[in-house]
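Order emerges. For instance:

***
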Amino acid sequence: MKPVGLSFREMKPEDAEAVETVEKACFAIPWSRESFWREAANENTCYLLALDGQKVIGYVGCWISLEEAQITNIAILPAYRGQKVGTELLGRLIEMVKKRGVTAMTLEVRPSNAPARALYAHYGFREAGVRKKYYHDNGEDAIIMWNTKL
């Protein structure tokens, strides 16, 4: 589905229900609405939403600790994938955290998630290690990726 009125904005606590809807559509073990409410209210996080009109169609978030940020999740509703929404979201998140003094970012990604790995590589993330049996739903390992030159 092609977004008609694509826009981006920071997540607020009142967005938790809409973000939870995206989360449930994308992940086998989704975070709860309460988790997103807490994340949006936390000054050490940065969450950005993608909207089609007023509808939340995706999000990306990270935890910030001094000069480093840990990407928690990036999710796009299946109907909107393949249209560079995730690319735009991640690029905007990087610019936002750089303004907050972040100089390095890290994340974990499934080896089987080739589109996500390509997205991260596009933004300069490089493989730095493996977390064995990281994902609880199927025991898949996680590849640790870093970009230390934001």
Observations:
- Residues 85-99 form the longest helix (15 residues).
